[in-house]
Every structure is written in C-alpha cells, then in structure tokens.
Amino acid sequence: MLAVSTHTRSRAALGYIACALAGGIWGTGFFFGKVAMREMSSAHMVLYRFLFACIGMAPILLLRRPGLNLREWRILLMASFLGVPLQFLLQFAGLARTTVSHASLMVGTLPVVLAVGASIFSHERLDRIGWAALITSSIGAALIAFGGGAHSGKADASSLAGDLLVVVSMFIALGWILLNQRLLRNHSPLVVTAYGIATGTVMLAIWVFSTEGPPPIHISGTAWLALAASGLLCTASTTFLWNWGLTQVPASRAGVFLNLEPIIGSLLGIAFLSERLGPIAWFGGAMIVGAAFTLTSRPGSHAEEECLLA
Question: Residue of 51, 148, 185, 264 with fewest CB within 10 Å of its CB?
Fold first, then answer.
C-alpha cells in the first residue's frame, strides 16, 4: 500500500510539473512572435508557427487514426477554423499593434471568459465569486487598455485597438474550446488536438497564401529560432505536457498554472523588449491575474476546461 501511495504521489508531482511547464512555456508565445514579426507580417508568422507545430504533431498524425464520423468531422473543422486561423490571426494582429506585456495580460482574461461561457452554454450558475471575478477582470482589462505605459509615440507602443483584438480572440477561443468539448467526450485529447491543428493549418495556409502570398524564407537565424520555438515549444510541446499532466492530476487543480502565461509573458516583454507598464496597467494586470487565480483555484472550477490553446 505504501509503495502504491508513493508511486501515486510521484506521478501526481510529475503531473503538476508538466502543467506548470506548459503554463510557463505558453507565456513565451507572444515574445517569440514579436521577435519574428520584426521581419515578417503577423499572418506569415502565425503560418510558420503552425507549420512547425504540425512537425511536432507528426508522430500522432502518422500513428493515430482520428476515428471520427461525418458529424464529428464537421465539428472538428468548425473548431479548427475558430481555433487556428480566426483566433490566431486576430490575436497576433493585435500583438502587432500593442506590446507583449499588454497582450500577455489581456490573455489573463481567458479563465474568466471560460467561466462565463460555462454559465451561458452549459447552464451552470455563476455564483457571487464568479461574478466578482468577471467584474474585476473586466475592470483590469480596461485599466490596461486605457492606462498605457509603453513607449508612447513609438512603433512598439501599446494601443487600444491591439489590446481589444487580443481580448476578442479570447472569446473566439471560447467557441473553439466548447466545440472541442463535444469531441473530447469520445476521443483522445491528443488526437483531437493534433488533427485540429493540422486541419486548421491547412485553412490558415489557404488564407495567408491568397491574401499575402508565400511567407518569406530569407530571414535571420534569430527569426527562424523564434518561429521554431513558437511552433515546437509554445504549441506542440505545451499541448503534450498539458494533456499528459491532466491524466495525472485533477483539472481543477492544474488550471491554476494557466495564470503563469500572462505573468511570464509580461515579464519577458519588460525584461527583453524594453517595454514598460504604467502604475495603472500594473494594477489592472494584478486584477486580471487575481481574478483568474480565484476562479481556477476553487474546487469545481470550470476555468480550465479542456484548455488546448497554443
């Protein structure tokens, strides 16, 4: 019995480490994206990110058949459209107009958006704590958007339009997650994620090639490294880590590690891209992260439901 208990605790510890790594690495996505976008458009950067992610997903795509029926394929394709081209093109178009620190903190609204989505679409009641978190997070996002704090007047300054595009992408992510939930009832999370990313990348490539042409290939080694990190680390690896971690620990406890993403992302922008947050924006960020932490750390939280974001 003791050996079994020790083994269970060890696997749980590894599960928490996997979820923490996933949350932390997700936080670097905007940083790597911003580095690559110095040499290409946001759409081309997103395309490269998902092409590299498909390379990371190749073992699943080659070894596992999806096993979906016609109805499930329709759900997968709709989820893929929302989750890859629509969400990420909007999200990184927002990043092109704002700073890494602002965009990262705006992503912190996701747990609250998911809680509201659960209340609306799953008919789950949002209690007083949930409503308080929603109001707090909304006020925090407004403070960041209107508080400024980045290099005013410079090309890399924050903007209201950029911040709002990132927030809008979080609501699109809600649709992606809700559709994925239907598939995850009968299929492996890794299979759903791998085939969702692959089909979404095909849609993304069609859109990007038709609107902006082929992506540039004559770019610096730094840009290639940033693109590879965005796809292999921030999308493929984090998905594997997160989904494996959820097989070892309760999702309601793992969800708290999602809060590492806005914290690490904003710190990277400040430390390496010379961004600055004003006092009002810092306060707004604390409100967002605090509200998200409150939701994800409560028993029975729905904020982390099947979060498969890159």
Answer: 185
Q: How many CB atoms lie within 10 A of CB 89?
A: 21
Nearest 5°: the CA angle 305, 309, 310 is 155
Rg (CA), the chain: 19
> Where along the chain do its domains lie?
2-297
> In this predicted structure, what is the pLDDT of residue 109?
81
- C-beta separation of 309 from 242 below 8 A: no
Rounded distance, CA 246 to CA 242, Å?
A: 6
User: Which is more confidently placed, 148 or 46?
Assistant: 46
**Residue scoring higher pLDDT (130 or 55):** 55
Nearest to 98 by CA among 145, 138, 147: 145
CA nearest neighbour of 80 among 107, 117, 53: 53
196 touches 79 (CB < 8 A) = yes
Tens digit of pLDDT for each residue in 79-107?
999 999 999 999 999 999 999 999 998 88
Place of tokens 């799953």: 122
Distance CA 117, CA 143 (A): 23
What are the tens digits of pLDDT across the range 209-246? 999 999 999 999 999 999 999 999 999 999 888 878 87
CB-side neighbour CA atoms (13 Å) of 147: 20
* Residue in 138, 148, 89, 88 with CA at minimum distance from that of residue 111: 138
Compute the distance between CA of residue 150 and CA of residue 142 in angstroms, rounded to an integer. 15
DSSP state of 215: P
